[in-house]
Design goal:
- It is built from 3 helices and 12 strands; from the N terminus they run αβαβββββββββββα.
- It is an alpha+beta fold.
- It has a single domain, classed as OB fold (Dihydrolipoamide Acetyltransferase, E2P) (Beta Barrel), CATH 2.40.50.
- It has a 5-stranded mixed barrel. A two-stranded parallel ribbon has the order 1-11.
- A hairpin with a 5-residue loop joins strand 3 and strand 4.
- Helix 2 packs across helix 3.
- The longest helix has 12 residues.
- The protein is globular.
Length: about 190
């Protein structure tokens, strides 16, 4: 146990303020998500949890489209951390979302039925327009990406964010969630 704690501290030393995470690919984000929705942040509010031991920021989103899960015009998801009064909790990698920002969100439902981002900030692909093409791009802000086998930080070449045209992203998510029908039996 002490060896793992020491390894964790060594890994964190060069990246104070970062959270260790495995890089998630689009298939993993899609598979782990209960809901995949494109939308804009309408509001956000930090609140204490029921035990007043942790702060959660609640984000309200107007959904423009739903790629997976039940569609709702408005959804709410939570991220760990925030500021309530003069108390502040910062959780690296949880994201800092501004009202008006647009994303494709990959969300999972926790034991308390709250929606949270799959893979922390990795589960929010920012929408932007580049040369007239709408794109969706992930971020690793606040995360130190590690190799799942060695727990060592990934080399820079392996830290490329996901970056898709919105049409390609939607197509890939749709293909992933559609059930594959079994091949017909021979002779039928």
């Amino acid at each position: 146990m002490a060896r793992w704690l020491l390894l964790g501290l060594i890994l964190l030393a060069p990246s104070l303020g970062a959270t260790l995470a495995m890089k998630l690919e689009l298939d993993t984000l899609t598979d782990k998500a209960d809901v995949v929705v494109r939308g804009k942040i309408d509001s956000k509010e930090a609140r204490w949890d029921a035990a007043k031991t942790g702060i959660w920021t609640h984000h309200s989103v107007t959904a423009t489209s739903t790629l997976k899960g039940e569609h709702a015009a408005t959804i709410e998801f939570v991220t760990r951390g925030g500021t309530v009064g003069n108390k502040c909790q910062h959780v690296a990698g949880s994201g800092n979302f501004a009202v008006g920002d647009e994303f494709v969100f990959f969300l999972w439902r926790d034991d308390e039925k709250r929606l949270q981002l799959v893979g922390m900030i990795q589960g929010a692909l920012a929408i932007s327009e580049v040369d007239g093409v709408v794109r969706a791009k992930s971020s690793f802000t606040g995360l130190t990406l590690v190799d799942p086998k060695t727990l060592k930080p990934l080399p820079e070449a392996d830290r490329t964010p996901l970056d898709f045209t919105l049409a390609d992203l939607e197509s890939k998510v749709n293909a992933r969630i559609k059930p594959v029908l079994p091949a017909p039996a021979e002779g039928k």
